[in-house]
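In response to reviewer comment 3 from the previous cycle, which asked for concrete evidence that the modeling workflow produces usable outputs, we include below a single protein chain processed end to end. The sequence was submitted unchanged, and the resulting structure tokens are shown without manual editing.
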Amino acid sequence: MPVPVALDSVSGWDFAGVEAALRQASPRFAYLVVDFQNPTGLRLDVEGRERLGGLLARTRTPVLIDESLVELDYQGDPVGGPPPLAAFAGDLSLTMGSAAKVALGRAAVGLDPGVGRPAGPAAVIPGRR
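The workflow returned the following structure tokens.
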């Protein structure tokens, strides 16, 4: 069962909410996007990664960290960004990435690469035969 935690597009992560969710729900694992989170575009800074990683490590919560968007750093060098969250989250962290969201954007949004229109069943997409 998902346990959502609010994310404020101005101030960022709600660490008190994350800590409460970890303590109260004792999730089997957490799934996090800390680099250019969609739809806010927020990127968790080093201090935030240390704090969040510490919470995950203390509660022994396994975490899957999606780094698929880490390469979308348009303001600087992705290599010069903050270290991965896994550096602070302990031995129960797993990092994954994907080139599909960055390199194959058309496919990710469901566009038919051959004709540039939405792909999918005719019953779902208006005007599709």
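Residues 100 and 108 are 7 Å apart (CA to CA). We consider this sufficient to address the reviewer's concern, and the full set will be provided in the supplementary archive.
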